[in-house]
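## retry 2 of 3
previous attempt timed out at serialization; input unchanged, resubmitting
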Amino acid sequence: MVVTATRLDRLSEAVERALPEGTELVEARFSRGPLLTLLVDREGGPVDHEFCARIISIVAPALEEEGYSGMIEVSSPGIERPLTRPSHFRRFIGRRVRVRVGEPVDGRRNFTGVIERVADAGFVLRLSEDGEEVELPFGSVTRAHLKEDLDK
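## retry succeeded, writing output
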């Protein structure tokens, strides 16, 4: 069976090819219908309004080549940035995250804790509530993001 990339996958790949060096596409998603939202990060500088406007002008032609002519929104991933790739989990070892998995692990789907270790197939999370460790495979993660304690 031949698996074809989804429209969002194709658009994401076009964006990644067009982005300047040192800029990362953290997440792409359709928001509010035809609005394509791109969360981007970059090395050595802020993701401010000027940078986002520049990214739109860079990626718009690449998206048009893929047949997308809708609206584009570019923004920073924020302080509770999504973790969408294994490399993100590696980068944030030692940081607190919130993770949702598709199939229950140890009878639950939602976890909050600190990333302890990362392997090729998954990662180990030290749970906030009891300090226990749970191993979660990357393939089971449906949503994950940094969890900042804003009360400190």
